């Protein structure tokens, strides 16, 4: 549908006619100030199409301008499927309607019917109706203040869009039947699983029932098994008891006990006898041992005496052998002592001569040293005296080189001053005539003299004349300078007692010569006495003290140094040889003395031993004799033989008894006795235990037997099998339902996505211009679900007003595009639908509208003219569309 | 002198049938006592000299006293002769057993518990019964061997009474427990050897018979539910054996491979062909094969219907695969996400590496069922 023009008269706000011609088939922006009636224009459009021309009552009244009874009229020209239609509707007074199209013209009620057919809408039963009754136009014509709300498409739009979508992608949703199946399966799933995928109470009950049965069954089985074990136990006990009875076990064991007891008594008898024999034997043995001991002792005593005597004799021989060697050693010692004395004397003698020679050598050395020192001291003193003399002479001359330099400078200055003065002085050439005397300032002049006159000069030719010459010019200053310099020089010469400079230079030369000579002499002093004169003097006096301490040799003439040294060396060698001789003599003497002491000690020891040995022999001899007096050797020997015989008899008797006792096997009999006793007790205990056990088991088995455990176990086993099978079935069923549920929901989800893909596909190019990263999510009810950014979907309701508004416009444009492509041209009218956008977004929205307007008619109603100035759209100002119409004027 | 004995065995009173839904199991359990009453009535009507119960009178030795008393009560209709009850492997005469308890409870004189090998003489010593009671569940030796040397009065008919497996004559695998020599009757000069343990009626030779259990108790195929009326005309004469059916319930095992509606129809036919009243039948079906969703739905309906008709019906699915066909798919939905889901489930079912693949079958069936029930509502 393309709206081409609209004229409105006497409609609500429009008391003056509004005529808008040439509405663009693309984008048109209609500008109207607030309260100027742009929303009224949209109302007028809706009224023309959707409100029956002959409507009455409140709706009709609402169409009238305020407080006026006029005839609202709306004219509309539009194009549909390439055909032009012209519609006129007048309301209230004389309502009328007319529609002219290519296939004919209609009037009155037929107009409304035809409009419904052409534009596919179901009008409201009563009243003006709302968006629900306006077909797809309800979706596409957006009134002010609605733009940011959800789309809320009416049934007509929804089914139109659905039909269009289905025509494109097919019936992927499967209609109501599909959703019923899904609902039923979802119910079944939810009956079995909780939201978190766990079994529900109902499902878990089956599991618990099975578990309870398992527990009960296990318990009964365990009791049954204990019953069976008890039966086996009871039988075993009965068997054992009957074996005891049938085999007469107790009686047999009692008999063995009795027999063992009898044998044991016999053993006891033997035991007593055996111990008596053992005791007899012990006594005999002891007696025999005593006799043997006495006899052995006697034999030992005799032998010991013999040994002691032999030892004493041997010692005596050894003692006698020592005497000759003692006397020999004593004579040797005396010889060695004499030799040693001689050697000592020789050494003393050599030592004395050595000392004398040493003193002589030292005396010679001291003498030589003193002579040298005295010579050096003498030379040094002489040089020192000369040095002092020259020094004094040099220092006596006052003028030194510096003073001379000053003199030279003064002299030079005076000379310069004189030369300068004379250069400007008046030259006088005086030739004195012979015979005449001429004086100049009193000075007699030679016959031919020349003078320079620098001051008032009196020239007198004796007796002739007196001439006073006064030189002119600046001579005064020069003369003064010369006078001062000459004065200074004169004063200096005076200070040094000089006549002239040459004399000064002679003096300075002489001074230098004196001082140089002094230095030379000082050098000589240093050569003779490097450490100074005092040191040299003290060294000399030291040597003189040393010499004084040394005794003067007896000789008349002192030997030379080398002779003295040679003599000392010879005497030293002599002393070493003498010392060696002494050492050897001492050593020989000591060796001999040691040998002597050794032999003497040995001899003393032998004496002691010999004395002791002789005492022992005497003692042993005395003891033996005393014992023999008490009991003779023969008696002792006989007593011993008799005791041996008695002991042998006792041993034979004891062994015989022992053999008899062993033959009776006492240990075996003891074991038999113990064993039989224990066996009787044990058997009796077993029999008692068996009887008691049998009684207990019988009682327990009877009690258990009455409980019908076998039936219970069998019943439970079968029930458990059943429960397990049921659980398996229930689980299987649950798994199957879960699988079915998951597959169904997934398929449904994909189907929905597929179903909406044509819209998504069309909305995306628009959205890309606005939010490049986002994706619009629609639901199958043709409603905006939200905005997907990445994997997150933000629900529509939580988006900002601006975004909501923009998305709603985009979605409408996409739907309109879709319908347009499927031959259902839909114009989109937006009454101030983009009011929350920021500047950037708004610009993007203008581009989007421009893009949409390439295929669609888009009419924007707004009061913001400036905003759209750059849109490139066809702009219509409501103010420009007001007409004073003759018809209207007449009616008014 | 001629004697008539009624030979029965393996009553296994107290046996539970818990695997059946509660009522069905309880009824089968109670029926075993009713069948004992029936035996007593037959014994009375046929004027037998004795009823021989060849072992396993009781399911086990730990039954409730009440069960023991009820058994005695069920035997009340026969008092003119003796009841000879032999302990078997289920109720061996151990130190403490059903038998010791029966003794304590007190049993009438005409009911004899043959708990020892002592011969029992009846009819003025004309009939000698040689019992071989089990004292434990399993014996490795042949207890009937003692029959060979057991002396009986001159001219008496010798009848052995034992519980165990006759060597190498019973169908199936021979159980080495409690063995009985197959020629025991001739070795011990028995006129008749009454045996228990095998639950079907079975003739081992002219003189050696298993009576079988009088009330069937399992799906094993054999001739159960009978008692044997044995007429013994004199020592050495061949016994005359008459089989009398007494069982109430008939147990069936039906193995069926299903591949479509025709096979299901055949199964239905097999069910219908079972004798009236259908409530006598206890049926176990073992189903394998491949079905589409529609047939699978039909099968579920058939099984539900016959579960109500039979005393008990159990259907074990052994390798039964449900595979949706294109028709199934189209029937569910030509398009839409439900169809997508169904296709995915089929893929999962085919993909054995998918851990969920074993549940895909049921998931598809459920989806189909949802669809079908939805359609029915509409």
List the helices and strands and how they pair.
The complex is a heterodimer of chains A (about 900) and B (about 375).
Chain A (H helix, E strand, L loop, with lengths): L1 E8 L8 E3 L6 E5 L6 H13 L6 H7 L9 E8 L2 E8 L5 E6 L2 E4 L1 H11 L17 H4 E2 L12 H15 L5 H18 L8 H46 L2 H148 L4 H24 L1 E6 L6 E3 L2 E2 L3 E6 L3 E5 L3 E5 L5 H22 L4 H28 L4 H17 L11 H70 L2 H31 L2 H40 L3 H62 L3 E6 L3 E7 L2 E4 L5 H21 L6 E4 L7 H14 L5 E5 L2 H4 L5 E4 H4 L4 H6 L1
Parallel strand pairs in A: 3-19, 3-20, 8-18, 18-19
Antiparallel strand pairs in A: 1-2, 1-4, 4-5, 5-6, 6-7, 9-12, 10-11, 10-13, 13-14, 15-16, 16-17
Chain B lengths: L2 E6 L13 H24 L4 E4 L11 H10 L7 E4 L12 H8 L5 E3 L6 E3 L4 E6 L24 E7 L1 E2 L12 E2 L3 H4 L4 E5 L5 E4 L2 E3 L15 E7 L7 E6 L4 E9 L2 H13 L7 E11 L1 H17 L2 E11 L3 H7 L4 H14 L6 H21 L1
Parallel strand pairs in B: 1-2, 2-3, 3-4, 6-7, 7-10, 8-9, 10-12, 15-16, 16-17
Antiparallel strand pairs in B: 1-13, 5-6, 11-12, 13-14
Describe the structure concisely.
The complex is a heterodimer of chains A (892) and B (378). Chain A is α+β, with helices and mostly antiparallel strands and 892 residues long.
Contiguous uncertain segments of 5+ residues of chain A: 886-892
Overall residue-averaged pLDDT value of chain B? 89
- How many helical elements of chain A? 21
Give the spatial strand order of the biggest sheet of chain B. 4-3-2-1-13-14
Strand content of chain A: 5-15%
Please summarize the sheet with the most strands of chain B: 6 strands, mixed
Helix/strand class of chain A:
alpha+beta
Radius of gyration of chain A: 85 Å
Tell me the number of strands of chain A: 20
CATH C-level label of the largest domain in chain B:
Alpha Beta
Helix content of chain A: 55-70%
* Helix content, binned percent of chain B: 25-40%
What is the assigned CATH homologous superfamily of the domain at 2-173 and 780-891 in chain A? P-loop containing nucleotide triphosphate hydrolases
State the end-to-end distance of chain B.
80 Å
| Spatial shape of chain B | elongated
Number of domains of chain B: 2
Radius of gyration of chain B: 27 Å
Total count of strands of chain B: 17
Count of individual helical segments of chain B: 9
CATH architecture of the largest domain in chain B: 4-Layer Sandwich
